[in-house]
Design goal:
Elements lengths: L4 H10 L12 H5 L4 E6 L5 E7 L4 E9 L2 E2 L3 E5 L5 E7 L4 E12 L2 E12 L6 E2 L15 E3 L7 E6 L7 H4 L11 E6 L5 E5 L5 E6 L5 E8 L2 E6 L8 E7 L8 E5 L6 E8 L2 E8 L7 E4 L6 E6 L5 E7 L3 E5 L2 H13 L4 E7 L5 E8 L2 E9 L2 E7 L12 E7 L5 E7 L8 E5 L15 H8 L3 E5 L9 H5 L8 H15 L3 E11 L1 H12 L6 E5 L5 H7 L6 H8 L3 H6 L13 E6 L8 H12 L4 E6 L9 H18 L14
Helix pairs in contact: 1-13
Length: 658
């Protein structure tokens, strides 16, 4: 890294146009993991399972529930050394399943491996499932497709047989086709395993009816995706629908089975250009019917009950909304909203008889507040971030700004509390690109705003959630329309007096990091610096890094295969044109966007004598899901941005770059 930041830090003190606000919360408050998350209920409601954290370390815990009395968390399981816990939930009323991840390295390749541990609610009788079986080498062992298939103490797991030649690749061997998975019955008390359903090509994933019957199958062959179904009285698999990926095909994707009418399915699919929830007939005797839709945005996610029936669905305009078609779920949500009107509450889990619901409230200043609803009463379970007072955080303001071509771009602008006039601006594009920014707590945004920056988030064309036309407007145009919409957002913020035109930076994660690198190569007069976190520097390299994936052909179609266009949209090629400082941050255990994407960009910047920093975070995954990794990232980010944008506050310890 070129040593020019010390001089800029000195100049920053002379160029103060600071914001008079109270001293911000410490960096560690924003970097800390939630005190509780992945919370779920035991089938009869006597316990809660959750992941607990002290900010850095995470463990599994259980809390007793008796009416409105909730006991303190009891630590029942730590992650094995060198691993991280993903989730824990009850398989029976006294027995939990906990998923954990370890990352193995084969050469430069990072490979995620997931395993399951069963443990009693009091922490006793720990048992790693599949450990002493021939399936122990399977890569992903935590795909539970049925939690109550019938036999006591049993779950159904979906696994790819580790004896297949595909697993040679994971250990440095030659490439081989990915085989379809089989389904196994696993006893969570004894650990016994039995084949439940043999692999059935081309099905790659199964959905059960929650009572042990595999009813829906999903398959992929190159760029073709297919859905299969079994009717209530026919064990054979029948093709329900198929479509080509990224071709705007109007197909309804099945997501569940109605327990009261076994041949009635629920699905998500297009209705007037927006995703809606549909009812489907597996026998084709009745035409599909729309159940829940919104004319402005896509329906995000259905809410399914403990028995699999449809309870409602969520969607998001400027703010999130819920539609419930089930009276019990609606009553639980209404009671939670009445008790906590500043929060948007969602149903997280319920007891098997749905006498008790677990809900999670959230807002732009509240990362999670868990509640229980029983017999009309709300019980407070606890906050995910008790050390971050909501009143100390800034609120998101929904905005719409004009972009070239007459488009109106929805997004959010967040300014520090009490700030006046134009501010240093951080543009924070979302990842994806098939994703969207919404109203909710974001530790990175809140950290930046607490340090005096305004933050602009835009749902540029190519984003998800606003219908097919919006998403496909930027299809195979990664460096074109989506990027231009961000530039237009900056110009709007400057024209509106929200942003200081001499103090603008772009900070992006994943695909957002790619956009930040584009900004560094294209707009030296608009952006003062750029930060790429787990970002893509070369889309062509991304194709080769995932060419063994089940979705490799679909990824190639999404990126596009026009070499001239790809070259124009590859920041790595244009490293010589970078005129502003660049910070690259990447976890070394990133299995989504490999760390090589940042390493090759750093090498190109070094060859061209550019001002850059590279922070490699040991053990960091794509989302930096450990507290220490986030502390390291935020310290580097503050040390980079403050002198670049002439912000004087220096409350966070300096982290050395490497």
């Amino acid at each position: 890294m070129r040593a020019t930041w010390a001089a800029r830090a000195f100049l920053a003190a002379l160029l103060i146009a600071g914001v008079a606000v109270a001293e911000p919360p410490p960096l560690e408050s924003f970097a800390a993991l939630p005190r509780m998350y992945e919370v779920s209920l035991a089938p009869r409601g006597g316990h809660l399972a959750l992941l607990a954290s002290d900010g850095g370390t995470t463990w599994a815990a259980v809390r007793s529930v008796s009416g409105s009395e909730i006991g303190p968390p009891q630590r029942v399981l730590d992650a094995p050394p060198g691993t991280s816990l993903n989730w824990c939930r009850f398989a029976t009323d006294e027995r939990l399943l906990c998923s954990y991840t370890r990352v193995a390295h084969h050469g430069s390749r990072a490979v995620e491996q997931r395993r399951l541990i069963a443990v009693d609610a009091d922490g006793g009788h720990r048992l790693e499932l599949l450990h002493d079986t021939r399936l122990s080498a399977a890569q992903l062992q935590d795909t539970v497709i049925d939690w109550s298939p019938g036999p006591p103490d049993t779950v159904l797991l979906e696994l790819i047989d580790p004896a297949s030649s595909y697993f040679n690749l994971l250990h440095g061997g030659p490439r081989a086709p990915i085989p379809p998975p089989s389904v196994y019955s696993v006893n969570v008390v004894t650990g016994s395993v039995a084949l439940y359903a043999a692999a059935h090509s081309p099905i790659r994933h199964y959905l059960s009816d929650g009572r042990g019957q595999l009813r829906i199958g999903w398959g992929v062959d190159g760029t073709k995706f297919s859905y299969y179904v079994r009717t209530a009285h026919d064990p054979a698999w029948h093709l329900l629908a198929s479509f080509e990926s990224f071709t705007n095909s109007q197909v309804i994707r099945p997501i569940g089975v109605d327990p009261a009418a076994p041949d009635t399915l629920y699905g998500i699919g297009d209705f007037d250009g927006r995703d809606a929830v549909w009812r489907l007939d597996a026998t084709h005797a009745q035409a599909p019917a729309v159940l829940i839709q919104n004319p402005e945005v896509d329906v995000d996610a259905p809410v399914l009950g403990a028995d699999g029936r449809l309870l409602g669905a969520y969607y998001q305009t400027d703010y999130p909304h819920a539609v419930y078609v089930d009276a019990g779920a609606a009553a639980a949500a209404a009671a939670a909203s009445a008790a906590y009107p500043d929060l948007f509450t969602t149903i997280v889990d319920a007891t098997r008889d749905e006498s008790t619901y677990l809900l999670r409230g959230r807002s732009d200043v509240e990362g999670g507040h868990y509640l229980l609803y029983t017999q009309g009463a709300i019980t407070d379970v606890g906050r995910a971030y008790p050390n971050v007072p909501p009143e100390s955080l800034a609120r998101q303001q929904p905005i719409v700004y004009p972009a070239r071509g007459g488009a109106k771009i929805p997004g959010y602008l967040t300014r520090p509390i009490g700030a006046q006039g134009p501010l240093p601006l951080v543009v924070m594009p979302h990842g994806g690109p098939v994703a969207r920014d919404g109203w909710g707590y974001d530790y990175l945004r809140q950290y930046l705003v607490s340090r005096g920056y305004a933050v602009l988030q835009a749902n540029y064309r190519g984003s998800d959630g606003y219908g097919r036309a919006w998403m496909y407007a930027a299809f195979q145009d990664w460096g074109g329309l989506s990027y231009e919409d961000l530039v237009d957002g900056v110009r709007w913020a400057i024209a509106q007096g929200q942003a200081d035109p001499s103090r603008v930076a772009m900070v992006g994660w994943s695909f957002g990091g790619y956009l930040a690198l584009l900004a560094a190569t294209r707009e030296p007069d608009l952006f003062r610096c750029a930060v790429s976190i787990a970002g893509i520097s070369d889309p062509r390299l991304l194709e080769t890094e995932h060419d063994d994936s089940l979705y490799a052909a679909a990824l190639r179609r999404q990126i596009g295969e026009n070499p001239e266009r790809l070259a124009r949209e590859t920041p790595l090629i244009y490293a010589s044109q970078v005129r502003i400082p660049v910070l690259l941050v990447h976890g070394e255990d990133d299995t989504v966007v490999p760390v090589e994407q940042s390493l090759t960009m750093a090498q190109a910047l070094e060859r061209n004598g550019k001002d850059y920093g590279l922070l490699r975070i040991a053990g960091g995954d794509h989302s930096l899901t450990s507290g220490p990794a986030r502390v390291e990232m935020l310290r580097a980010l503050g040390e980079f941005l403050d002198p670049c944008l002439a912000v004087s506050r220096r409350t966070d310890p300096v982290v050395p770059m490497r």
